[in-house]
């Protein structure tokens, strides 16, 4: 297995681009297109927010139709909470793209991200589509990644390759997200492609698993938004034997897809609004994996914990308090806590000033692990979270919705 950084540009048969259409101030890119030169198998995972944006509703329908060849996405406007006009505008995006690519509208998925509640300037997008299509190329992934950003400071790309059933298979992807990040799906978009030949049920299963282990295992601020989706297109150009559910090839593909998704998800954490640290919260020796995941999420989303991490303060009392309010059965005298290799609590009791001082050094790092050992069972799980800084408050205090 080998890791790369070319994102979608590493996947054979995938053409991409991104341009400035006028939604955002020039010269910022705000319109992206991803196109497969061959027919694909497609799968998607979507936000659980019930105020879904129009592009989410349209893309769900088109994914079910099973013939997707293209994804068009704009930034700067979410086309969310825009009523019937929003649905019409999302369909218009699909129609304009389909016409320019000689496809059917249901072969085009639509994404939007940005400010909620404002009508989409659809005329600008329709006018820009011919130029967008004319600029498609195998190496356009970086511009596509840039065109879907909102408050992000950095583009997010990842890709990897591995041999599956004797054939070299590639998976690449791009993502956006910096705030309103929390399971299940948040203000983030993830667009993935692969040259694997894979049956639809296997792709759906692999994507659901990969998202659960990555995008749904990160939290920046506990907010879940209206527009979020992760899509994956598989065009079969690797000429491998078709990957099917329950096979060794399926398991290998799932590991590969999870690797790419986790890479992108961690990039989102590192690019979080005002973030200075990424913390992996691991819960070991829980009774059930569900308990472990819930415990990790309660601690990882605690405002007091997150602000303490920003202040580089190993205030383990805040962690114990969060554990205690998780509504999970615990035995306090069995709990141990550690920052990386520095144990600060053992069997429910603090280990002393020297340990706290050593932990402070760990908390100066940009990435570290908090391990919570419940001492109750054999199950474990983890999430990634971030600290919470004044910069997050300042940015969101002035971000219009």
Structure write-up:
The chain is α+β, with helices and mostly antiparallel strands. The chain folds into 2 domains: 2-270, 4-Layer Sandwich (L-amino peptidase D-ALA esterase/amidase), CATH 3.60.70; 278-397, Ubiquitin-like (UB roll). It is built from 11 helices and 17 strands. The strands form 3 sheets. A 7-stranded mixed β-sheet has the order 10-17-12-16-13-14-15. A 6-stranded mixed β-sheet has the order 1-7-8-9-11-4, sandwiched between helices. A 4-stranded mixed β-sheet has the order 2-3-5-6. Helix 1 crosses helix 2 (83-101), helix 2 (83-101) packs parallel to helix 3 (122-134) and helix 5 runs parallel beside helix 6 (248-270).
Keywords:
34% helix; seven-stranded mixed sheet; globular; 401 residues; L-amino peptidase D-ALA esterase/amidase; Ubiquitin-like (UB roll); 2 domains; alpha+beta; 17 strands; 11 helices
State the shape.
globular
Unreliable parts: none
Q: Give the count of helical stretches.
A: 11
> Mind telling me the CATH superfamily name of the largest domain?
L-amino peptidase D-ALA esterase/amidase
For the report, how would you describe the main beta sheet? Answer: 7 strands, mixed
Helix content: 25-40%
* Average pLDDT, all residues: 90
**How many domain regions?**
2
Secondary-structure element order, as H and E?
Answer: EEEEHEHEHHEEEHEEHEHHHEEEHEEH
CATH architecture level-2 label of the largest domain:
4-Layer Sandwich
Structural class: alpha+beta
Distance between the termini: 43 Å
CATH class of the largest domain: Alpha Beta
List the SSEs and their pairings.
Layout: E1 2-4, E2 14-19, E3 31-36, E4 41-46, H1 54-65, E5 70-77, H2 83-101, E6 108-115, H3 122-134, H4 141-147, E7 156-164, E8 167-176, E9 189-194, H5 200-213, E10 218-219, E11 229-234, H6 248-270, E12 278-286, H7 289-300, H8 303-310, H9 316-324, E13 336-339, E14 342-346, E15 349-350, H10 353-362, E16 367-373, E17 379-386, H11 390-397
Parallel strand pairs: 5-6, 9-11, 10-17, 12-16
Antiparallel strand pairs: 1-7, 2-3, 3-5, 4-11, 7-8, 8-9, 12-17, 13-14, 13-16, 14-15
